[in-house]
Specification:
2 domains; 10-stranded mixed β-sheet; about 20% strand
């Protein structure tokens, strides 16, 4: 069963994240959706009256969390989703990652920014921390004009025949996009061929042929879920920049990319193409880092679409 963790705080970016999640098609079967709100409990060593003020503020934030949860639950009304609400307190990024472990999440969804802009500048964004440390695939949502229009969602899979590229292909294959999406598969060819930190040896002609064969393989695997997909092979000096430029040119709403397996230290110090894309993309980014189980491959409608088999709690 798919376990999804949605982190919300009531801010516009977090509610955009909930809307996009509800909008996405999903595979058959009931999904477990944990809606998490992290309430930060301030600590000030002061007198009793100040403590009472802080206590009341904390309770107010908890009540706000419940209001936000009700708004989110309405987005998924009638869906094949089992909802539950978790309120925790503590550092936001760490709390989200911990809950992903607790609920054994396969997929984590978060808005690109929360309430605190100052915190983002000084400490790094919560979404960046979560995307870096989460034990599962993570979608960081940045709003486009998708929800304000009736056009299909525009999806881009950044692909190469590496372990991380195949992993992203497998994950995106679980979504029955059908004709309800403008789907693109992109491979970027560079002279160093350093896509997601992996190098391919050979002459330029041989490399180009290898990339073309990889795109044909991806097209073959995705035809059932995205029959009208388009494949693209472009050249660029830097893979990440090539991906970003293509996404902006095509007005992509959701960019899917695999993450190369790295040690914790190398991920923090060296970065990767996925981290470059995550930080520079104008659109939502899905970083794939799960090995998808076969039972997740199925048929279904939008996650927020009504059905007769609704079950929520």
């Amino acid at each position: 069963m798919l376990n999804v963790l949605l982190a919300v705080d009531g801010s516009d970016p977090s509610m955009h994240a909930a809307e996009l999640l509800a909008h996405l098609p999903h595979s058959g079967g009931v999904a477990n959706l944990t809606v998490l709100t992290v309430v930060q409990r301030p600590f000030i060593h002061s007198n009793y009256s100040t403590g009472e003020v802080l206590k009341k503020a904390f309770e107010r934030d908890k009540n706000h969390a419940e209001t936000v949860y009700q708004q989110v639950s309405e987005m998924f009304e009638g869906a094949d989703v089992k909802l539950r609400h978790v309120v925790s307190d503590g550092p936001v990024g760490e709390s989200i990652v911990q809950e992903a472990h607790n609920c054994q999440a396969n997929f984590l969804v978060i808005g690109a920014r929360g309430h605190s802009q100052i915190s983002r500048m000084l400490l790094g964004s919560v979404s960046d921390y979560v995307a870096t440390h989460a034990p599962c695939s993570t979608m960081v949502v940045r709003p486009t004009d998708l929800m304000k229009s009736e056009r299909p969602i525009r999806v881009l899979l950044a692909y190469e025949q590496t372990a991380s590229g195949i992993e992203a292909l497998q994950e995106v294959q679980t979504i029955p996009w059908r004709t309800g999406a403008d789907f693109h598969v992109l491979t970027v060819e560079t002279y160093l061929s350093d896509f997601v930190g992996q190098r391919v040896a050979g002459e330029e002609y041989e490399m180009t042929k290898l990339y073309e064969e990889g795109l044909l393989t991806a097209q073959h695997h995705l035809m059932k879920v995205a029959p009208k997909l388009q494949t693209h092979l472009v050249k660029a000096d830097h893979v990440g920049e090539g991906i970003i430029e293509f996404a902006e040119k095509e007005g992509i709403d959701l960019l899917v990319i695999g993450e190369a397996q790295r040690s914790s230290l190398s991920r923090l110090l060296l970065g990767s193409t996925s981290r470059f894309v995550l930080r520079h993309a104008h659109c939502s980014v899905w970083v794939a880092r799960n090995h998808v189980r076969e039972e997740l491959l199925g048929q279904g409608g939008p996650l927020g679409e009504r059905s007769n088999s609704t079950e929520s709690s």
